[in-house]
Amino acid sequence: MEALLAGGVKPTDVLVLRFDLQTLREAGGLLGLVRWFEANIRQRDLNSGAPAFLLLDEVQKLPRWNEEVKHLAETTRARHWHIT
């Protein structure tokens, strides 16, 4: 994250989600959180403007996580991913 910001990436173009936190796992799934990020933080969808960076920690703890990541990869221009 620090390297992205030091490299000139705007904080509003970076979404960091740590799914080891129960609250995030209960927040409506990955797609719901990404849509919230688009509307409230980025203020544009992932297909508009500068590339988005999605940093997903412990995403495998979500049900159907692989389907949601695949959907985002196939339907958005967000091509900068870090999944652990």
Summarize the structure.
Helix content is 40%, strand content 17%.
Write the layout of secondary structure elements.
Elements: H1 2-6, E1 14-18, H2 22-25, H3 29-42, E2 53-57, H4 65-75, E3 80-83
Output the number of helix runs: 4
Poorly predicted residue ranges: none
Q: Roughly how many Å apart are the termini?
A: 14 Å
What is the β-strand count? 3
Radius of gyration: 12 Å
Q: What is the H/E string?
A: HEHHEHE
Helix proportion: 40-55%
What's the pLDDT, averaged over the residues?
88
Count of separate structural domains: 1
Shape: globular
By secondary-structure content and strand pairing, the structural class works out as: alpha/beta
Question: Main beta sheet: strand number and arrangement?
Answer: 3 strands, parallel
